[in-house]
Predict the structure.
Amino acid sequence: MSKEVKIGKSDVIATKIGLGTNKVGGHNLFKSLDDRDGYAVVRAALDSGITLLDTAYMYGLGRSEEIIGEVLKEYDRSKLVIATKASQDPAQEHKKNNNTPAFLKQAVADALRRLQTDYIDIFYIHFPDEETPKDEAVAALVDLKKEGKIRAIGVSNFSLAQVKEANKNGDVDIVEDNYSLVHRTAEKDLLPYLKKNQISFVPYFPLASGLLTGKYSAVDSDKFEQFSSEQFKKIISNMSRVKEIAAKYDATAAQAILAWYVANPDVSVVIPGARKPEQVLSNVKALNLVLTKDEYDEIDTAFKEF
């Protein structure tokens, strides 16, 4: 695996495909998760050459971080990139977000303990709160960066105005937000700002909750009520074409979609999740699928209206 990317203005280097770990220990988010699978998923990712693991306190209220921390002891920590996030305040039953400097500094200390590591490569403010000036929140992370406790500063789920406020002093390295071929609103304003300011971008839900894997058909429209019937029909039709492109490479539709993100100059790292190790191994194969310019453009154009 040779495709790597530099994160923002930091010195963090990561593989273009990482692992989203909300299904690793995220018992509060998904039913019937097995921690044994979680350990196996993380090991499969690291053994396959993936270097970036994306987690968060809210993935099992720290359980995901604990599992990753246990596995980290088996690998060379210096070659791995650990990203985690926090903002949900346990003191307020996780119903409110907290971006105050004191909260963020304690959140980093707690995450370091659960991850059993001396530093976090990327730390995100998971969600904005309503009160804290965003540049003040980021200033607290700058302090932690100077102390060597974090290496890159990120924000997640911030509006463009909040990203600009957070980046007032040019300290934001990376932004994580909802983006996929069927959810492209970030392209209008957010992505141009990030590119201009040397800020990396990581999309979550890149496979749109399975819609972009090709496993659904026209009869499944009730599972995706955010789309009109006409939009859903178009997505299913587009996925038929994606499957044809993928077949040329003996690949799956999901691998072709992930290859599109890898080739997208606005996307730094794509972080599909996985419940089982075999899903990780399938996702990693997308790095070996290099779309032609015509294929990339065809997929891009087919989904442009979204």
The chain is about 40% helix and 15% strand. The first helix runs from residue 35 to 48.
